[in-house]
User: What shape does this take?
Amino acid sequence: MPESPWWLSSRDMDDKALKSLEKLGCSQPGEAQKRLAVIKVTLEKVRAETEGVTYIECFRGSNLRRTIISIAPLSIQAIGGVIFIAGYSTYYQQLAGYSTSESFSLFIALQLCSMFGNVCSWDLVDRLGRRFMTFWGSLILTILLLITGGLATAGDTRSIKGAIALMILYGWIYNVSIGSTAYNLLTEVATSRLRVKTIAIGIMCQSLWYTMWSFVLPYLFNPDHANLGAKIAFIYGALSILCTIYLWFYQVETAGRSYEELDEMFMKRISARKFKTYVTEVETKGQELQRRNSATAVKA
Assistant: This one.
């Protein structure tokens, strides 16, 4: 952030950085200088780690696997139908016979459910784990999409109401699961040296998917073209089946793991389904150290 102590220090404006730190609460004698020293050491480490890094490195050796696993959940978000639910549900409701005010109210309900789902994820993402929430969330969303497509095919009033209700439920489950975990995985799976570039690749891929859907969806959806309406859910459901299969075989668990542990497991090519239970060398050393300390305490 411009004019923050970090930004000023990165521009070798140490005098202004010290004044900024003092304004931000470092009021004790020497406290601002100590804090500035820590900032400069951290910035130097970051420079050393990222110096000379290129995008090509993201696709070499074990980094290729990490890049794919990092960016895949973001792409799955775009492939899984959220753009239709969040962007076209109101239009579908109006085509189905709902008034403008009714469709607006339903859209507000969708947004509230989505926000509530995101709040629910705050605790669950660590309690249940990234892999668990991403895989099972995607599986449930796939089922919802297929049922929604079936109800839209029926076409009667009760079926349409059911399809709209499932869209609102989709918004909640999406934000509880992959809508939240994708961003955790994007930053946690990538190695620290390549994290910034991996994030850039992930966001770019997701944006390309959304751009493609923005062109394609009107032709699939509108009455004067393919006129699929909510039957588009069949297309997203089929794509989601493939995405769910991918998640089962390739999505790793990062909850509770340090970056050092993740580096070790990727270097050893540990299977994605074993990431949660695998005992790393870091854990083994920690357990040995704990036993030694316990033994020393008993002797004392």
